[in-house]
Amino acid sequence: MTKECKQQFTLRITQANATQLVVILYEMTLQYLADAEQAAEDAQFLEAVRKTRGCINELLNSLHREYSPAAELSRLYLYCIRRLACEAKADRTALQDIRKVIAPLCDAYRQIQDQNPSGPVMNNSQTVYAGLTYGRNQLTENMADQGSNRGMLV
């Protein structure tokens, strides 16, 4: 995953509600799967698989077990984690199986993310007012209000 992609995910996370966070986790999972599929070296492949597993574990751990679809989603996530055992033998076909499970779930959550009226999960996060500005032969990212009172309050 590129540095710019990580910055975009970080920005989206700071402004996301609970449903949007699930969508972001699915998108991160799909991005790490793509990274694993395109990895030229075994070390890059193993790192991408490890990060994919981390995203799926987070999805699994964040399930609200009191609701009915949690059991089915849990089974799907556990299936994906078992398929990620391909890491030992660099089996790239397993990654396609995982993509077939995660992509439709991502699309489904994308469709319902705007129905969640709650505000962002993170309070007191830094607000980005200006994006990129053009300088001489470069792009510069400007942020307003970079004070010490930012991030989550405890």
How would you characterize the overall build of this protein?
The protein is mostly helical. The protein contains five helices and two strands. Strands 1-2 form a two-stranded antiparallel ribbon. The longest helix has 21 residues, at 18-38. The radius of gyration is 18 Å and the shape is flat.
Quick structural summary:
The chain is 57% helix and 5% strand. The chain has 154 residues and is mainly alpha-helical.
Give the overall form.
Answer: flat
Radius of gyration: 18 Å
Note poorly predicted spans: none
Straight-line distance between termini:
30 Å
Residues in helices, as a percent range: 55-70%
The order of strands across the largest sheet is 1-2
Strand content: 5-15%
Mean pLDDT: 81
Q: What order do the SSEs take from the amino end to the carboxyl end, as H and E?
A: HHHHHEE
DSSP strand tally: 2
Given the structure, what is the number of helices? 5
Largest sheet at a glance? 2 strands, antiparallel
> Based on helices, strands and strand pairing, what is the structural class?
mainly alpha
Any descriptors?
mainly alpha, flat, single chain
Secondary structure layout:
Elements: H1 3-14, H2 18-38, H3 42-61, H4 69-83, H5 93-112, E1 132-135, E2 138-141
Antiparallel strand pairs: 1-2
Helix pairs in contact: 2-3, 2-5, 3-4, 4-5
